[in-house]
Write a structure and sequence with these properties.
The complex is a heterodimer. Chain A is mainly beta. Helices cover 0% and strands 60% of the residues of chain A. The termini of chain A are far apart. Chain B has a domain of 32 residues. In chain B, strands 1-4 form a two-stranded antiparallel ribbon. The chains are: A mainly beta, B alpha+beta. β2 of chain A pairs antiparallel with β5 of chain B, so a sheet runs across the interface.
């Protein structure tokens, strides 16, 4: 039996178990401990500042520009690839934005509110940063829709 | 007398332990796998040998990780 451990984006000490079952109950189980240490490599780290971004001038049914500031707080470059809306299940932005370590850049995209009043959307920012393990980095858009 | 009881308890303990070990139909070559120190990036792999030590066919029903 081959036991594999994915080291990418999982730096540090690890202590995991693999349980092999030949039947029901604990009496038919054997547990293998796997231990080790993963030396981290330089990598980008995503930050959206502020995490909760206010969008001005929202009008119901009208596409309005929103801008978020993305920072690479890591020690190597990172590439931002997409910004998706959780609320509207759409992709706000798609591309390839490379940020060097320590660099901050704005990303603009269009949002279209679908009802007047309080606006809130959770956006997922996708990149190859250490703190994105394929699920994106969460940030929030807020505003008031007329 | 006390030493006799201690000895009996030890023998019983050993018997119980050996019977419990014998109850497992599969023997695993390494119960602790040390990957050592690795550099982040690739998928690391280690092989352990599973041996059927019973007299019957054994099915591995499930393998889970945590």
């Amino acid at each position: 039996m081959v036991i594999s451990y994915n080291t990418f984006k999982y730096p540090g000490k690890f202590d995991k178990t693999v349980t092999v079952s030949t039947g029901e109950g604990k009496a038919n189980q054997q547990t293998i401990h796997i231990v080790g240490y993963v030396e981290p490599i330089p990598m980008g780290v995503m930050e959206v500042t502020p995490r909760k971004t206010s969008v001005d001038g929202l009008v119901n049914g009208k596409a309005t520009s929103a801008k978020i500031m993305i920072k690479n707080a890591g020690d190597a470059s990172m590439t931002v690839t997409a910004i998706k809306s959780r609320k509207f299940k759409t992709t706000y932005w798609q591309g390839s934005l490379k940020l060097e370590a320590g660099q901050t850049a704005p990303v603009e995209f269009l949002v279209t509110p679908n009802k007047p009043g309080r606006f809130m959307d959770i956006i997922m920012v996708y990149s190859d940063a250490r703190n994105d393990i394929g699920k994106g980095y969460k940030a929030v858009l807020i505003g008031e829709t007329k | 007398m006390f030493k006799k009881i201690q000895l009996m308890a030890l023998v019983l303990g050993l018997l119980f332990a050996s019977s419990a070990m014998a109850a497992q139909p599969v023997s695993i070559s390494d119960m602790k796998v040390d990957f050592g120190s690795m550099t982040e990036g690739p998928v690391a792999s280690k092989t352990v040998m599973l041996t059927n030590v019973s007299k019957e066919v054994v099915t591995i029903k499930n393998v889970t990780t945590s």
